[in-house]
Amino acid sequence: MRVFLDAASKKKLEALGNQRVVDQLDRFVKLCKPAKVTVLSDSGEDVAYVRKLALEKGEESPLKLKGHTIHFDGYYDLARDVGSTKVMMPPGMRLSKGINTIDREEGLREMMGLLDGAMTGKEMLVKFYSLGPPGRFSLCALQITDSSYVAHSEDLLYRQGYQQFKKLGDRKEFFTFVHSAGELDERSVTKNVQKRRIYIDVVDGKVYSVNNQYAGNSVGLKKLALRLAIYKANHEDWLSEHMLLMGVHPPGKKRVTYFSGAYPSACGKTSTAMIPGQSIVGDDIAYLHVDEDGYCRCVNIEQGIFGIIQDVNPADDPLIYAALTTPRELIFSNVLVTNGVPYWLGMGRDDIPEKGVNFSGDWFKGKKDRDGVEIPYAHGNARYTMRLSELENVDPEYNDPEGVVVHGVFYGGRDSDTNVPIAEALSWEHGVYIGATLESETTTAIIGKTGVRRSDPMANRDFVVVPLSTYFSNHYRFGKRLKHPPRVYATNYFLRHEGRYTNMKVDKKVWVLWAEGRVHGEYRAIKTPIGYLPIYRDLRNLFKVVFNREYTEEEYLQQFSVRVDKYLEKIGRMEEIYRAEPEMPVEFWDFLNWQKVELQAVKAKTGSPVLSPSYFA
């Protein structure tokens, strides 16, 4: 290798025996021009080096509790930047409308220009990771970054992969992520966010990210790796999904049933995975395969959580709250810090300080930004990063390289006026349709206006780097290969009536337990055009057992009545979206047309825009 490395780094690199790694590192060192290059292995010493460096460089600062640190992103770098994230398109490649693209050659020229000298005066860290427990379902990932915060986050979120790279030999089967925070200001945050770019090269299995620090834009192994894995999965025979993975444990029964679930950011994914009494395998990204016996086998590719902290409090999320308020290795980001103590929105305390330090710098109550907007004490997309092993409810199988067999799949979005809290799909094909037609009202997890209804198929809209028709077709083919397909459920925790939510945040536990009981044939259901709905007495009994709470028939009718007009409006929106999508699978249109005819028929017969479940019973 032509670039100078210290003896330890050189030894680690040579031990891999992989010329492609050497060539890439040589190329990016010359381009980025770092003052120092450090190659890191899986050793405890190397992992500790990264954490220490994050503190020394000021990208993180220690908090009062042992192991806790705080990281601040720049004021305009606090969420995923959809507009600056683009797929680099080679000639002849087609993607769906709404997926941001740039000509591959143009994108490479721009990115090479931005990365030229981007690490001048800084230390380049070279890290190796395994996406998933090392085994037949895992993928290897090489991370090159000048941000010790990014590397520290990945050490918490992902399994070390240096040994996996050794097993690769000289093969080229790994993803590469190149990141630079760019020039930093006096607070160690990115200075030139107007030049923030995140470009995905699916052809070469690479992601380039520059002039940013927010983990959703900078941590390559998270949503950026998801995009590369989706491309790979859709050219093979498996699924790469934006999904939680959890074990459901019904009260009084000695069994565990595994579910996966897809929810857009800030729509209940982590809080579902962390429902008290259940076990978490993962909260964000999963790989799904058909095993030798025809079951759906699912692996969590992560070993940690990068969770939204807003509204985590002792009443609604007791397990997470306990983890966040006790000593352990944990990174907070973009909360308020006063005297070494973090404060976040919705944490259930009345004694929030009126001054401290947050993502805007020194903060005081009433402080305004340059546009005259009052700055809250913590951001709505503030986060915490920690290892799953720190949680008392981590599932014992979370590290199994064979994953777990999934018997149910949840899809849910932030929907104020249409979907019932839970409904079971009539078939696998209906389940794919539910995922494909998922909508959600936007939140602070994405830069832009909040509260806007947005189509978000499979909660993967921003990450699908193949045509949506190809993506959906892969799901239908996957289902045909399953001898034992999981049941699929549409969920909605955000239904409103007269401006108020129709259920409490904790009620999702009942919906999940009902689904688990359905898997085992314990509950009957009412068949409707939107799916199978729970029977009132079953939910009433579950509420009594789980919460010792009376669940009234009035609540049931408010929540589970079928809003015929609203569903027909949604079908109209889906027709408009997917008519513009070439080569949509016939299974999609068959179900849409069937559901439309059924709903129109009951509307014509009854004249009612809303029908109670008893109408269909």
Structure write-up:
This protein has about 625 residues and is an alpha+beta fold. Helix 11 crosses helix 17. The chain starts with 6 loop residues before the first helix and ends with a helix. The model has no long low-confidence stretch (mean pLDDT about 95).
Chain-wise SSE layout:
Layout: H1 7-16, H2 19-32, E1 36-39, H3 44-56, E2 61-62, E3 68-71, E4 85-89, E5 101-103, H4 104-115, E6 123-131, E7 139-145, H5 148-157, E8 159-160, H6 162-168, E9 174-180, E10 197-201, E11 206-210, H7 215-218, H8 220-233, E12 239-241, E13 243-248, E14 257-262, H9 269-273, E15 279-282, E16 286-290, E17 296-300, E18 304-308, H10 318-324, E19 330-333, E20 336-338, E21 341-343, E22 355-358, E23 361-364, E24 383-387, E25 404-412, E26 422-424, H11 428-436, E27 439-441, E28 453-455, H12 468-481, E29 487-491, E30 496-497, E31 500-501, H13 508-519, E32 525-528, E33 531-534, H14 536-547, H15 553-560, E34 562-563, H16 564-579, H17 586-606, E35 610-611, H18 613-616
Parallel strand pairs: 1-6, 3-19, 4-5, 4-10, 7-9, 9-11, 14-25, 25-29
Antiparallel strand pairs: 2-3, 6-7, 6-8, 10-11, 12-16, 13-14, 13-15, 16-17, 17-25, 18-24, 19-24, 20-21, 22-23, 26-29, 27-28, 30-31, 32-33, 34-35
